[in-house]
Amino acid sequence: MAEFLTGFKRTDMCGTLRAKDAGRVVTVMGFVQKYRNLGALIFIDLRDRTGIVQLAIKNTDPFYEKAASIRNEYVVAARGTVAPREGTNANASMDTGEIEILVSEIRILSEAAVTPFFITDNCNANETLRLTYRYLDLRRPFLQKLLMLRDKATRAARNYLAENGFLEIETPMLGKSTPEGARDYLVPSRIRQGAFYALPQSPQLYKQLLMIAGMDRYYQVARCFRDEDLRANRQPEFTQIDIEMSFVDSEEDVMEIAEGLIKRVFFECKGINFTEKFRRMTYQEAMRRFGSDKPDTRFGLELNDLSDALGKCGFAPFSDAVNAGGGIGCITYPSGAAKFTRKDADFFSEFVKDYGAKGVFSAYLKEDAAPAFFKHLTDAEITALMGVAGAQTGDAVFIIADKKKENVLNALGALRLHLAKKTGLIDESKYDILWVKDFPLFEYNEEDKRYYAMHHPFTSPKNEDLQFIKTDPGRVRAKAYDLVINGQEAGGGSIRIHSGEVQRLMFEALGMSEEDIKARFGFFIEAFRYGTPPHGGLAFGLDRLVMLLSGDDNIKDVIAFPKVQNASCLMTGAPDFVEEKQLNELGLKT
Amino acid sequence: MAEFLTGFKRTDMCGTLRAKDAGRVVTVMGFVQKYRNLGALIFIDLRDRTGIVQLAIKNTDPFYEKAASIRNEYVVAARGTVAPREGTNANASMDTGEIEILVSEIRILSEAAVTPFFITDNCNANETLRLTYRYLDLRRPFLQKLLMLRDKATRAARNYLAENGFLEIETPMLGKSTPEGARDYLVPSRIRQGAFYALPQSPQLYKQLLMIAGMDRYYQVARCFRDEDLRANRQPEFTQIDIEMSFVDSEEDVMEIAEGLIKRVFFECKGINFTEKFRRMTYQEAMRRFGSDKPDTRFGLELNDLSDALGKCGFAPFSDAVNAGGGIGCITYPSGAAKFTRKDADFFSEFVKDYGAKGVFSAYLKEDAAPAFFKHLTDAEITALMGVAGAQTGDAVFIIADKKKENVLNALGALRLHLAKKTGLIDESKYDILWVKDFPLFEYNEEDKRYYAMHHPFTSPKNEDLQFIKTDPGRVRAKAYDLVINGQEAGGGSIRIHSGEVQRLMFEALGMSEEDIKARFGFFIEAFRYGTPPHGGLAFGLDRLVMLLSGDDNIKDVIAFPKVQNASCLMTGAPDFVEEKQLNELGLKT
Description:
Two copies of one chain form a homodimer. The first copy, chain A, is built from 16 helices and 21 strands. Chain A has about 600 residues and is α+β, with helices and mostly antiparallel strands. The first copy, chain A, has three domains: about 15-110, CATH 2.40.50.140; about 145-285 and about 435-560, Bira Bifunctional Protein, Domain 2 (BirA Bifunctional Protein, domain 2, 2-Layer Sandwich), CATH 3.30.930; about 300-425, GAD-like domain (Gyrase A, domain 2, 2-Layer Sandwich), CATH 3.30.1360. In chain A, strand 1 (about 25-35) and strand 2 (about 40-50) form a beta hairpin.
């Protein structure tokens, strides 16, 4: 039968006791990690979120029988004297290994059945089982440390923002559906049957309205929702550190504040002190050199443009691409000729198809045999290729040609990353942080034959590009910026449109009718009429930021109760069927 | 046309400039509160969230024409020199009244149409108009200060909790519907059509599972949802400071931590230093003396029990009530005989009907005429009444008799509050804080003929009362506690059941079938099997806490974007009708 705590008060956490505590009478509480009954002595490893400490019980102790009944994961409170463990008894692999607690009183607070998997970091239970028993999975030190890291990172961010005059302001979860891009999660209204709230994809409109309201600087650690088919490392609900500030109209104003936040978080969580300003790179440069708007610059393998060198050559796949307005590009892998095989080349050709390209010409520059397609090129063309590619004998050159330039860049960018990961070119001990800016304001969608906002429809065009918004939207650059850490987008934002007139031009460029604008954003356009400070902001993805801080690459690990691929929770069974009565009250039929 | 900020950087907030800043060149930015054009001089009052500062522009300034075009609520940036305002020019009613800014450059960042109401604290626009233009309403200093207070209170609470070892852990918004009490907001699943998530009424289950997971101490500033018909000062979404801790099994363990939090918040937000321990009062005592489980003890008018004194008297309304197992109670209002009228007495009788009583016997103890019903009482009974009531000639005694004791207490409690408010007995400058504890575990519902959990079904019974849970549930007291501030429930919580066995007894006492328990709480009961630390916690209502700190009594004022009575948002129009396509994707019909 479980015992009560009466008279017991915890004095120390298990993992914090050290040799200097020897002689102290302490009370610790936790879960039993393991027990060893040596007859004359029982040793119990007691675990809390700070670590593990060893309890020692002698067979002369009056509570020996009770102690002998203790099993793994029992919840136990123990009082005793900290004693040094001498010589070979010390355990150097444990932080508390220099001491143990000689128990004078022990209580069993809760018994425990045998757990479906053993609570340890090198647990080999499958993810489904671990997520079904998430409360047991979370007992593993690895996950506990991640949640503690998350708490710490959030706290560092909050403190920084408060010191910089940002107010934490909560915005509604039950909002209005204004779908543009992702799908909204809807919430049926009972009082107004047939009508729905939407859960926010981000607090974008509200935070801009707070600027119009004169709140000046806002932040929120905001839960956001997207009803999308989940890819790896996506969750239906996610958290962002959401920031907005007034009286800024240049990107640098926001980037400076945001950069300070990231530096603070890295310093407090990792002890890393970034003293220099993060690099700035334009979208154009990022795409040209790395084939990505979130380049990982911890390694080389930069892209080269072969369009001029080979555009007029006699090899149809190359010349046709350039003639159709596309391009030719390559990556040179130094000393790659002997590293990669024919089979690799086949794989690369398959691999790039996901990125819009049709294949890769893998040129292994061997002493003895030229790549097959070289026979279609003149000597001058081969020389030009080698020059642009910076290649020499022994290297591998991977060439992609396509009738669309962006396919060349995207595919080479993806191939570049793949090659680096596969061949271990990335120094994982390094943090590589940079800003990407000057994004295009619009993306053209071939299928819909219309422009979409690359970030969102509230992003301000660059002052000097506003003139093209009606005549040549593709040319307009945005006052937008992304922070890229180790090739991942950690956050992004923009200076916002703060003129109702420009906002209307933007909606029109996106093909929205007057009626549409009014129905969906009427209240927002109206707000701009009454004096709107220039403003901008950004949002960091907290889940991803914690992953980057931890070096872990599974988003589920940094979320206490994550959902799986089909957006369900294996522990609770949500979503689930509800009582008929509940649906009737909502006037809903499924 | 709007101008850009290029070259301008804010140096100071408007409301912070003082005489000591004279001579400094500053740049300020804000909204125009008002302007006065005196011909030779233009004065502009510029407002940001910190206050107002006066700008002065001379007709010899090259930008005089531009300045003359400025109207209310224009957004303006100005650079200039801080100059003292001498003698009668100083404005003692403004914090910045000793200085003004002699403008050397001014920019109009945004023009503004005439606002639908004037931006001032003594704005007389109706609430509907103000909520429709909430972003303008929020420009009023009164509301800005409330949101700043909310930020400050939240920050104080977070810092306190972090210092005490609590981790901020986020729990899901998309959860499982387990309705017990209030109605859930549902979120249809697209992937599993016909199934629903529920938005949390509180993170109760998750936070307990975090204790089972060994996270030890948790907190969250958590958004919660209840789909109830809104009464005054209720919102469909609200925020609580949600706390849970392990290794506690006595109420005092949690109350001590929670009390420290409230003290910290009051100190940081109001400069009030509560040095003494908050009073503890049992539920029994609170009901008996004040007729309320959230007694306002800033004034007297305590309840007296007349059941013994008058239970056997010849006045049927009294004796019948006692004979039927009910009671008779009273409040004595000193010197009330001349204060209240016959009409008041009629009103009181009506008033108490909402609280289950049938009426009030208002006994005005006048020199010249005894209350009518005294003729049914013997002299001894009258003497006894006066004795128990502590009444003397000149007082008013308000008596309620009912066949249910709780009706007597509830009605007298409500009447007591009403009398105090109406006659100004409450010292509003005072904070009156106390704990109410030892609540009954269950409430019996006459209509459903079953017991309900008074707090929630996870509340632990008192150790000594557990034995009655099957035989006499009404007698079982809970390890529950509420913090009451000025007669309002600021927060409440309990020690939780930490044994699966007891939890099952509890569900059974609530009339849940084995099947029901399994379908709704199966995963939760299962979790208890693997070792559960004793744990407990509480939640403070953040919205109400901020109201109490501010002295304001409208919950909408402390929420950035509140909803109105029918749970709609007047600004955005949410909830709203959505596209057919969205419903089709969810497999829903309305």
